[in-house]
Automatic annotation (TrEMBL), chain A:
Keywords annotated in UniProt: Cytoplasm, Endoplasmic reticulum, ER-Golgi transport, Golgi apparatus, Transport
Keyword Signal annotated: no
Family: Belongs to the TRAPP small subunits family. Sedlin subfamily.
Protein name stated in the entry: Trafficking protein particle complex subunit 2-like protein
UniProt main location, coarse: cytoplasm
Compartments (UniProt record): Cytoplasm, Perinuclear region; Endoplasmic reticulum; Golgi apparatus
Gene field: TRAPPC2L
A GO term from the CC aspect: perinuclear region of cytoplasm
Domain of life, source organism: Eukaryota
One BP term from GO: endoplasmic reticulum to Golgi vesicle-mediated transport
Organism the protein comes from: Pelodiscus sinensis
């Protein structure tokens, strides 16, 4: 299955991109970029909603015939976008939620590192390993 | 094969040997060939070797499993020490020296020289002492593989000196070398004279100024004997070089360290050998140095160093940011963005190691892990990535028990964070289930939603904990108010099976609804629900409908219907307009069920004015009075309407509270806001109600009804009142239906949400569980 994770910062530039398999990455870039519109739309629709896990998780942004795109946004407007293959029907919504939660936690750990400047690309080995393990679970 | 107990040193040693022999990297089986070579290197007579093999079972199995290998090694040691080979000797012989295998390992023996020549793989100068990068090429020498890890051939190459020297030169490059030295010293400590630490120190000091790698060329000149000193001094190197890196000015520290080291060389050797093969272990001097550095930043040893200060500090080491970032990730154990003393020492140590050329591990080495009282992570075996097969080494490395004794008041903060973490998670887990989550009742839903929002984020348990008790209290309160009614109400309001709590909640819900419905001026919507029940905010008419729907069913059931009624008394008691309510509520209740019967009573409107007058007279809670008066009035009015007769009849039969209820109801209906038609019916119902002891309920009900009626347009007294009454009742019923339908859908939705929440919580819990293993 194909999975891709992309983190995008407030200004929508990518902070972290990871995909399996590594080919066709450009297509994922494009997909994620286009899905940002949906993300923004959902964010604006939330308005003054209470911030909790439910609203951080944006859910299925849009399905295409090939893949599904899921979104998640943190309180600091860092967007996590995940693209999964449509053939991977085993992925339940809650699994996606838990994956996003793990991503969020790892991202928080990265942020705690004083050597990491927010806005830099994420070069953390721990983060990478976490993402790899998650992708391995899915694939 | 009997169980084999190995000392720690033995364990490590054997593991390395096994790894060395494990050419196929199966980690389970050592091919016979390699093992045999190894045994040959032990310089044991072949028959002994055969005997050993037999004893350990290898001949039986045909290969050397790990256990067989260990047993064999132990037997080799036994044999080498001259003891007879027996199975029992495996465990009985204490303090057995490690089996010695001729080869690079035994620097003490000069046999390695003979092996050197055969070791072509040692591209470096050394011959077999230091295993060449490819690793275990020391088969020829039968050396132990612990050197295999040394992949830093670069440093090896510098050692162009005698093979004996070679091992000494490797230390700076890899922790394994360190370990090797350890082992060597452990194996042949006694044999190795500690010669001339002095000359060693000087070249060492010369090496200091340079980078760590510069120490290598200097080493090349060293003689074999002092290799231990080298190793010892190497131990000093990190701190000294770190000193250099970080504080060029602190030359004094270097000398101090060096002198200290030299003075305690012997002690260190012994200590180091005992601590064995842990290159990541922090020595006492290092530890002291780190602590001093910590103090310069943060005087309180139990305090934190904030991330920014640490960043500055470590940036001085001139390591690339990426590596510093990685070091931080490794050392900030609790991920709080600050370094405690232990974390700081670990980070410092990693920086030192890195500056000396060691690669950073992927995971924090065991000896660097901060001591957490709560966590028992000492059993965790971190893997140093750089080390090829050294996975076993670290695992066997001396546990934190041997860790620098000065792992001082370790992280009180860490200790706290962990239990807090666990507690919080447990608390949240506990909090969540407390309330009656799985019930569809709205209140439950609200509770759950509150909890969900609270627990998921940083909302510690407190708000959540607060809420359930509140809710439960409320529920209890409500339950206490009306017991019988509750069950009925619950049964009515939701068809789901309730637990006792839901019943309470349901009652609370109904109570709430009734509260809001009872009075347009309803004093206070039901307190507990965290979220104002939508129905509460709705107009009282809904509540009235509810009460309507409730009452008919209940009345028909002959049960005390007003589960909703009980709450009424409270709000209604305070309000003036509530005067009508007691009457109205019941009247309404009666009305719905007897709507068809209301029609004939419509004409009682004429009485309404009188009722109103009566009501206006200030009869409030005095239902009886009203009733009586009304009844009187009604009786007077009787002739006017047939309903009046009815009413009178009712009044007669009901000269109690109900009548009063009817009056206002009637009046309301006929004239102003009160709904007349229901009133007569209410009266009738009231008679039934009277059977119930809940007078208050009546008052409330009437209040509600009054409110509802109030919302309805006044109906001019006319014959059409019947129709209007019917229409009104129909309308009310419809409203009630919609309300209930909406409620149902909401509850369903909430149920779904709760279920999902539960699943996500379970997932979270699972996540937290493995996390505790880390």
């Amino acid at each position: 299955t194909i999975v891709a994770y992309i983190l995008r910062a407030l200004q929508n530039y990518p902070l972290y991109i990871r995909s399996i398999p590594t080919e066709n990455e450009l297509k994922f870039h494009y997909t994620v970029h286009t899905s940002l519109d949906v993300v923004d739309e959902k964010i604006s629709a939330m308005g003054k909603a209470l911030v909790d896990q439910r609203e951080l998780y944006l859910g299925l942004l849009y399905p295409t015939e090939d893949y599904k795109v899921y979104g998640y946004v943190t309180n600091s407007k860092v967007k996590f976008v995940m693209v999964v293959d449509s053939s991977n029907t085993a992925l339940r919504d809650n699994e996606i939620r838990s994956m996003f939660r793990k991503l969020h936690n790892s991202y928080t750990d990265v942020m705690c590192n004083p050597f990491y400047n927010p806005g830099d690309c994420i070069n953390s080995r721990a983060f990478d390993s976490m993402v790899t393990s998650m992708m391995m679970q899915v694939c | 094969m009997e169980g084999l107990t190995l000392s720690e040193a033995e364990q490590r040693y054997y593991c390395d040997l096994f790894a060395y022999c494990d050419t196929e990297s199966t980690k389970k089986v050592a091919p016979n060939g390699r093992v045999l070579e190894l045994f040959r290197a032990a310089q044991l007579p072949s028959e002994v070797v055969l005997q050993i093999m037999e004893l350990c079972g290898a001949t039986r199995l045909g290969y050397f499993g790990r256990s067989q290998f260990y047993i064999a090694l132990k037997l080799v040691a036994v044999a080498q020490s001259g003891l007879p080979l027996r199975v029992e000797s495996l465990n009985t012989v204490k303090d057995l020296p490690l089996p010695r295998f001729v080869g690079p390992k035994n620097e003490q023996e000069l046999r390695h020289t003979a092996l050197y020549s055969s070791d072509a793989d040692n591209s470096t100068s050394y011959s077999g002492v230091i295993p060449p990068p490819p690793g275990r090429v020391q088969v020829k020498k039968g050396s132990v593989s612990h050197d295999a890890v040394q992949q830093r051939t670069s440093t090896d190459q510098q050692e162009s000196t005698s093979p004996v020297v070679s091992p000494q030169q490797s230390p700076p490059t890899s922790p394994h070398i360190w370990r090797k030295h350890h082992r060597h010293s452990s194996g042949g400590n006694n044999e190795r004279p500690i010669a001339g630490p002095g000359p060693l120190w000087t070249p060492f000091s010369e090496a200091q100024p340079g980078a760590s790698t510069t120490g290598d060329p200097i080493w090349s000149g060293h003689s074999p004997p002092p290799h231990q000193e080298n190793w010892v001094s190497f131990a000093d190197t990190p701190p000294t070089s770190a000193l250099l890196a970080m504080h060029p000015a602190s030359v004094q520290d270097q000398t101090t360290v060096r002198t200290v080291a030299s003075a305690t060389t012997a002690n260190e050797i012994r200590r180091q050998s005992s601590s064995y093969d842990d290159p990541w272990k922090i020595t006492d001097e290092q530890r002291q140095y780190y602590v001093n550095q910590f103090k310069t930043i943060q005087p309180d040893l139990n305090g934190f160093i904030p991330g920014s200060a640490a960043k500055e500090f470590f940036t001085k080491s001139k390591l690339p940011i990426l590596e510093l970032s990685h070091i931080w990730e490794l050392s900030d154990f609790d991920k709080d963005g600050a370094l405690t003393l232990d974390e700081f020492c670990a980070a410092f140590h990693l920086v030192v190691a890195r500056k000396n050329g060691y690669d950073l591990p992927e995971k924090l080495p065991e000896s660097l892990m901060p001591k957490l009282i709560d966590l028992e992570d000492t059993t965790v075996v971190p893997v140093i990535s750089e080390v090829g097969d050294q996975s076993g080494e670290v695992g066997y490395s001396s546990s934190p028990a041997e860790a620098p004794p000065s792992k001082s008041p370790s992280m009180p903060s860490l200790n706290q964070t962990w239990p807090e973490l666990n507690q919080s998670s447990e608390d949240t887990a506990i909090v969540h289930p407390v309330p009656i989550r799985m019930t569809p009742s709205k209140i439950h839903m609200q509770e759950m939603e509150l909890k969900r929002s609270g627990s998921d984020h940083a909302n510690p348990t407190s708000p959540l904990l607060v809420k359930p008790p509140d809710l439960s209290e409320d529920n209890k309160m409500s339950t206490s108010k009306f017991v019988a009614g509750n069950t009925v109400a619950d049964g009515y309001s939701s068809s789901d099976s309730y637990t006792s709590d839901p019943e309470q909640i349901g009652s609370t819900v109904t109570r709430q609804r009734s509260h809001s419905g009872t009075s347009p001026d309803n004093t206070a919507p039901p307190p507990p629900p965290p979220r104002p029940h939508p129905s509460h905010s709705r107009s009282s008419s809904l509540d009235m409908n509810r009460s309507f729907t409730v009452t008919p069913g209940q009345q028909q059931a002959g049960v005390a219907y007003p589960p909703a009624v009980p709450p009424r008394p409270q709000p209604t008691q305070g309000a003036g307009p509530h005067v009508h309510r007691p009457v109205d509520a019941e009247g309404l209740i009666a009305h719905t069920s007897t709507s068809p019967q209301q029609i004939p009573e419509q004409p009682n409107f004429a009485d309404f004015s009188q009722f109103e007058a009566l009501v206006a007279s200030g009869v409030n809670e005095e239902e009886e009075e009203e009733i009586e008066t009304h009844s009187e009035v009604l009786q007077v009015e009787k002739p006017s309407d047939s309903s009046g007769s009815l009413r009178v009849a009712k009044a007669e039969s009901r000269i109690e509270d109900k009548a009063a209820v009817n009056v206002p109801v009637n009046s309301g209906k006929g004239t102003t806001p009160l709904a007349p038609p229901p009133k007569p019916i209410r009266r009738r119902l009231k008679s039934e109600d009277e059977l119930r002891p809940e007078v208050e309920e009546h008052t409330q009900k009437t209040g509600v009804i009054a409110a509802v009626l109030a919302s309805q347009p006044s109906i001019p007294r006319s014959v059409g009142k019947d129709k209007k009454a019917i229409q009104a009742s129909i309308r009310r019923n419809k409203e009630t239906n919609t309300v209930l339908a909406r409620l149902n859908s909401e509850l369903q939705q909430q149920l779904k949400d709760v279920l999902e929440e539960r699943i996500s919580l379970e997932v979270q819990l699972e996540q937290l569980r493995p996390f505790s293993h880390l």
